[in-house]
Amino acid sequence: QVQLVESGGGSVQAGGSLRLSCAASGLSFRVYGMGWFRQAPGKEREFVAVISWSGSSTDYADSVKGRFTISRDNAKNTVYLQMNSLKPEDTAVYYCAADLTIKPRRPPQYWGQGTQVTVSS
């Protein structure tokens, strides 16, 4: 049984930082692309960031480029999202995702349960 368990969400003021973690189990983590998506109230779930299985390739939504950094530790079966210079519009539930190839507009094979991030102005 595949499990993706997010942690690290919370409330922060604008300009602050948070680091999300996603611990994966039940899959061959080293061969999976990993990603982060988010869903704000009343909006569709959207792509945030993706990292290849090796960590050598990353991609980001334009809205977070230069502020967010995705990384992974294959020894710990964990993917991270470092979020800096947070803005109120970053407020959303953040979901970890896993698939052999993460595509921004295609639902991934596996989802985590989500972690809330709230940014106040």
SSE blueprint and pairings:
Elements: E1 3-7, E2 10-13, E3 18-25, E4 33-39, E5 46-51, E6 58-60, E7 68-73, E8 78-83, E9 92-99, E10 110-111, E11 115-120
Parallel strand pairs: 2-11
Antiparallel strand pairs: 1-3, 3-8, 4-5, 4-9, 5-6, 7-8, 9-10, 9-11
Instruction: Kindly state the number of beta strands.
Output: 11
Helix count from the secondary structure assignment: 0
User: SSE order in H/E notation?
Assistant: EEEEEEEEEEE
Going by helix content, strand content and strand pairing, the class is mainly beta
Average pLDDT level: 97
Q: If you compute it from the alpha carbons, what radius of gyration comes out, rounded to the nearest whole angstrom?
A: 13 Å
* C-alpha end-to-end distance: 40 Å
Give the overall shape, derived from the CA principal axes. Answer: globular
Largest sheet: 7 strands, mixed
Poorly predicted residue ranges = none
In terms of DSSP E residues, the strand content is over 45%
Commentary on this structure:
With 121 residues, this protein is mainly beta. Helices cover 0% and strands 50% of the residues. The protein contains no helices and eleven strands. It is globular, with a radius of gyration of 13 Å. The chain starts with a strand and ends with a strand.
